[in-house]
Amino acid sequence: MLLSLDAATVRLGGRAVLDAVGLDVAEHEVVCVLGPSGSGKSTLLRAVAGLQPLDSGRVLLDGREQTHVPAHKRGMGLMFQDHQLFPQRDVGANVAFGLRMHGVAKDERDAEVGQLLELVGLPGAARRAVASLSGGEQQRVALARALAPRPQLLMLDEPLGQLDRSLRERLVVELRELFGRLGTTVLAVTHDQGEAFALADRVVVMRDGRIAQSGTPLEVWQRPADAFVARFLGFDNVVGATVTGAVADSPWGKLPVPDGSAQGARTVLVRPAGIRLVAADQGLPCTVTARTFRGTHVAVRLQPERAPWLEAACALRDAPELGGVVGVEFDVSETVVLD
């Protein structure tokens, strides 16, 4: 493994903000760490970078312990949300900063800067002033600067957090392609699920200083580890139930669950796509209390008489009217019994 955390622990004010975390990142792998504020994700990144000392545990890079290695000697690149470019220097000087610190000759630096700016989509921008750049362009310059010393590991702290949505969506695709082309090993921190799922080979969800789940984006999306992960990913149809065979007895009535589901007292998730709307007399009667246009579909909030509310995903043409009464049936293929 290129990077390994072994029982990494950080305590602040007597509280473990990083609690005996174990994490491996393979060479050429892109790993995104997700979690709400206070979950420990930024502390994890800072500990790996050498900016936050561990109270116990180890950080190993390519098998070598980094505990007493200062941040500037760890061979890592770090890119922050706010770019942290040098405003008094032009684009080329910003990108060349790490190369100059490593003693690279000027001619070689200039050639490398040109190649990197080409790579990040800013050809010929070396002489431009930082103040003349848009937010997206500044992000590209910060990325080129982080990549310039050819770090073993590139770390990204909320890399696209300050950009507008359309630019963020475009850049995350470009980053994914760039990292694949360069074979860059990446450890990124973000609170944006869409960004993480588009960028990562593996997603790590954190809660209260610990890892709640780790897996490929598809694995985490299809099978959240528990109710916390499910809700963090934006799934609200989560309820306690008792599973017997292929049926879960829940506040919404009897739900079909996949064969082989864990039995007994469990938590059940029904994705919005698994809420089928039918006539009120053919399913669980619900009142439509809200409709939210989401671009590709309409999110419909449904309130049963004596049970938690549900969210359904409907095509615009099929969305029921606000205040109307509909019936709900449950699709077993979109139902998950959480372990």
Topology:
Blueprint: E1 3-12, E2 15-25, E3 30-34, H1 41-49, E4 56-61, E5 64-65, E6 76-79, H2 91-101, H3 106-119, H4 135-147, E7 153-157, H5 165-182, E8 186-190, H6 193-199, E9 202-207, E10 210-215, H7 217-222, H8 227-232, E11 238-244, E12 247-250, E13 253-256, E14 264-270, E15 275-278, E16 284-293, E17 298-304, E18 310-314, E19 325-330, E20 335-338
Parallel strand pairs: 3-8, 3-9, 6-7, 7-8
Antiparallel strand pairs: 1-2, 1-4, 4-5, 9-10, 11-12, 11-14, 12-13, 14-20, 15-19, 16-17, 16-19, 17-18
InterPro entries: AAA+_ATPase, ABC_SmlMolc_Importer, ABC_transporter-like_ATP-bd, ABC_transporter-like_CS, Mo/tungstate-bd_C_term_dom, P-loop_NTPase, Transp-assoc_OB_typ2
Protein name: ABC-type quaternary amine transporter
Organism: Streptomyces dangxiongensis
Question: What are the segments in which pLDDT stays under 50 over at least 5 consecutive residues?
Answer: none
The tally of structural domains comes to: 2
SSE succession: EEEHEEEHHHEHEHEEHHEEEEEEEEEE
CATH architectural grouping of the largest domain: 3-Layer(aba) Sandwich
Task: Give a structural overview.
With 339 residues, this protein is α+β, with helices and mostly antiparallel strands. The chain has 2 domains: 3-227, 3-Layer(aba) Sandwich (Rossmann fold), CATH 3.40.50; 235-338, Nucleic acid-binding proteins (OB fold (Dihydrolipoamide Acetyltransferase, E2P), Beta Barrel), CATH 2.40.50. It is 25% helix and 35% strand. It has helices spanning 41-49, 91-101, 106-119, 135-147, 165-182, 193-199, 217-222, 227-232, and strands at 3-12, 15-25, 30-34, 56-61, 64-65, 76-79, 153-157, 186-190, 202-207, 210-215, 238-244, 247-250, 253-256, 264-270, 275-278, 284-293, 298-304, 310-314, 325-330, 335-338. It has a 6-stranded mixed beta sheet with strand order 6-7-8-3-9-10, with helices on both faces. Strands 13-12-11-14-20 form a 5-stranded antiparallel beta sheet. 37% of the residues are buried. The model has no long low-confidence stretch (mean pLDDT 92).
